[in-house]
Amino acid sequence: MTTAGAAVGAVDDDAEAYFGAKLRFEIDVMDVAENFPAGGFVLVDTRRRASWDHGHIPGAVHLPTADIPSRAPDLIPAGTDVVVYSWGPGCNGSTFAALAFAALGYRVREMIGGIEYWARNGHPVETASGVSQGSPTGW
Protein backbone atom coordinates (compact mmCIF):
# COMPACT_ATOMS: atom_id res chain seq x y z
CA MET A 1 0.00 0.00 0.00
CA THR A 2 1.10 3.56 -0.63
CA THR A 3 0.76 6.29 1.93
CA ALA A 4 -2.53 7.28 0.30
CA GLY A 5 -3.86 3.77 0.86
CA ALA A 6 -4.00 2.64 -2.78
CA ALA A 7 -2.20 -0.46 -3.95
CA VAL A 8 0.78 0.09 -6.22
CA GLY A 9 -0.30 -0.49 -9.81
CA ALA A 10 -3.96 0.20 -9.08
CA VAL A 11 -5.80 2.38 -11.56
CA ASP A 12 -6.03 5.95 -10.32
CA ASP A 13 -8.82 7.81 -12.09
CA ASP A 14 -7.76 11.08 -10.49
CA ALA A 15 -4.24 10.72 -11.88
CA GLU A 16 -5.55 9.92 -15.33
CA ALA A 17 -7.82 12.98 -15.28
CA TYR A 18 -5.05 15.21 -13.93
CA PHE A 19 -2.43 14.19 -16.50
CA GLY A 20 -4.96 14.29 -19.32
CA ALA A 21 -5.90 17.86 -18.38
CA LYS A 22 -2.28 18.83 -17.93
CA LEU A 23 -1.43 17.70 -21.46
CA ARG A 24 -4.44 19.57 -22.80
CA PHE A 25 -3.25 22.86 -21.31
CA GLU A 26 0.52 22.58 -21.71
CA ILE A 27 2.77 22.51 -24.75
CA ASP A 28 6.49 21.85 -24.79
CA VAL A 29 9.21 23.94 -26.37
CA MET A 30 9.80 21.57 -29.28
CA ASP A 31 6.11 21.54 -30.25
CA VAL A 32 6.05 25.34 -30.19
CA ALA A 33 9.24 25.55 -32.25
CA GLU A 34 7.87 23.11 -34.84
CA ASN A 35 4.57 24.97 -35.14
CA PHE A 36 5.44 28.65 -34.76
CA PRO A 37 4.60 30.98 -36.43
CA ALA A 38 2.34 29.01 -38.78
CA GLY A 39 0.67 26.91 -36.05
CA GLY A 40 -2.47 28.97 -35.70
CA PHE A 41 -1.65 30.49 -32.33
CA VAL A 42 -0.24 33.72 -30.94
CA LEU A 43 2.86 33.25 -28.79
CA VAL A 44 2.88 35.63 -25.81
CA ASP A 45 5.86 36.52 -23.63
CA THR A 46 4.33 37.42 -20.27
CA ARG A 47 7.45 38.74 -18.55
CA ARG A 48 8.34 42.29 -17.56
CA ARG A 49 9.99 44.71 -20.00
CA ALA A 50 13.52 44.15 -18.62
CA SER A 51 13.20 40.39 -19.14
CA TRP A 52 11.79 40.88 -22.65
CA ASP A 53 14.72 43.17 -23.46
CA HIS A 54 17.17 40.55 -22.12
CA GLY A 55 15.90 38.14 -24.77
CA HIS A 56 12.63 36.84 -26.21
CA ILE A 57 11.36 34.48 -28.87
CA PRO A 58 11.33 36.20 -32.27
CA GLY A 59 7.76 36.84 -33.36
CA ALA A 60 6.31 36.63 -29.85
CA VAL A 61 3.97 39.34 -28.58
CA HIS A 62 5.09 41.09 -25.40
CA LEU A 63 2.17 41.30 -22.99
CA PRO A 64 3.10 41.26 -19.31
CA THR A 65 0.69 39.30 -17.12
CA ALA A 66 -0.56 42.39 -15.29
CA ASP A 67 -1.61 43.96 -18.62
CA ILE A 68 -3.51 40.98 -20.04
CA PRO A 69 -6.99 41.93 -18.75
CA SER A 70 -6.81 45.45 -20.17
CA ARG A 71 -4.74 44.99 -23.35
CA ALA A 72 -5.34 41.46 -24.66
CA PRO A 73 -8.74 42.18 -26.24
CA ASP A 74 -7.19 44.99 -28.33
CA LEU A 75 -4.06 43.02 -29.31
CA ILE A 76 -5.35 39.49 -29.84
CA PRO A 77 -8.69 38.83 -31.55
CA ALA A 78 -11.28 36.83 -29.63
CA GLY A 79 -11.22 33.17 -30.62
CA THR A 80 -7.46 33.16 -31.21
CA ASP A 81 -5.46 30.33 -29.67
CA VAL A 82 -2.77 31.62 -27.33
CA VAL A 83 0.44 30.05 -26.02
CA VAL A 84 2.08 31.85 -23.11
CA TYR A 85 5.59 31.63 -21.71
CA SER A 86 7.69 33.19 -18.99
CA TRP A 87 11.21 32.55 -17.75
CA GLY A 88 11.37 28.83 -17.02
CA PRO A 89 10.34 25.93 -14.83
CA GLY A 90 11.13 27.81 -11.63
CA CYS A 91 8.68 30.59 -12.52
CA ASN A 92 4.91 30.39 -12.46
CA GLY A 93 4.35 33.70 -14.24
CA SER A 94 3.03 31.97 -17.35
CA THR A 95 0.54 30.04 -15.22
CA PHE A 96 -0.89 33.32 -13.92
CA ALA A 97 -0.92 34.64 -17.50
CA ALA A 98 -2.71 31.54 -18.78
CA LEU A 99 -5.33 32.00 -16.08
CA ALA A 100 -5.83 35.64 -17.11
CA PHE A 101 -6.28 34.65 -20.77
CA ALA A 102 -8.66 31.83 -19.82
CA ALA A 103 -10.73 34.28 -17.75
CA LEU A 104 -11.12 36.38 -20.92
CA GLY A 105 -12.36 33.34 -22.85
CA TYR A 106 -9.23 32.54 -24.88
CA ARG A 107 -8.11 28.98 -25.60
CA VAL A 108 -4.72 29.05 -23.94
CA ARG A 109 -1.80 26.72 -23.32
CA GLU A 110 1.35 27.21 -21.29
CA MET A 111 4.75 26.53 -22.87
CA ILE A 112 6.54 24.44 -20.26
CA GLY A 113 10.19 25.23 -19.74
CA GLY A 114 9.74 28.85 -20.78
CA ILE A 115 12.37 30.79 -22.66
CA GLU A 116 15.07 29.10 -20.59
CA TYR A 117 14.39 25.75 -22.24
CA TRP A 118 13.68 27.41 -25.58
CA ALA A 119 17.26 28.72 -25.56
CA ARG A 120 18.68 25.49 -24.12
CA ASN A 121 17.22 23.64 -27.10
CA GLY A 122 19.12 25.92 -29.48
CA HIS A 123 16.18 28.00 -30.70
CA PRO A 124 16.64 31.67 -31.65
CA VAL A 125 16.49 34.44 -29.08
CA GLU A 126 16.05 38.07 -30.03
CA THR A 127 17.47 41.14 -28.28
CA ALA A 128 18.01 44.75 -29.36
CA SER A 129 21.32 43.53 -30.84
CA GLY A 130 19.59 41.06 -33.14
CA VAL A 131 18.80 37.36 -33.18
CA SER A 132 21.19 34.71 -31.86
CA GLN A 133 20.92 30.97 -31.38
CA GLY A 134 20.33 29.70 -27.90
CA SER A 135 22.63 27.09 -26.42
CA PRO A 136 22.46 24.33 -23.82
CA THR A 137 24.35 26.54 -21.38
CA GLY A 138 22.13 29.54 -21.91
CA TRP A 139 22.27 32.41 -24.30
Short key terms for the protein model shown above:
139 residues, alpha/beta, 5-stranded parallel beta sheet, two-stranded antiparallel ribbon, 37% helix
**SSE string, helices as H and strands as E:** HEHEHEHEHEHEE
Measured as a percent range, the helix fraction is: 25-40%
Query: Strand sequence of the main sheet, in spatial order?
Result: 1-5-4-2-3
Tally of alpha and pi helices: 6
> What is the SS-derived class?
alpha/beta
Rg calculated over all Cα atoms: 17 Å
Topology record:
Layout (H helix, E strand, L loop, with lengths): L12 H13 E3 H7 L5 E5 L3 H6 L6 E2 L5 H8 L5 E5 L7 H11 L3 E6 L1 H7 L3 E4 L2 E4 L6
Parallel strand pairs: 1-5, 2-3, 2-4, 4-5
Antiparallel strand pairs: 6-7
Kindly summarize this structure in a few lines.
By secondary structure, the protein is α/β, with parallel strands linked by helices. It contains 6 helices and 7 strands. Helix content is 37%, strand content 21%.
Describe this structure in words.
With 139 residues, the chain is α/β, with parallel strands linked by helices. The chain is built from 6 helices and 7 strands. The protein has helices at residues 13-25, 29-35, 49-54, 68-75, 93-103, 114-120; strands at residues 26-28, 41-45, 61-62, 81-85, 107-112, 124-127, 130-133.
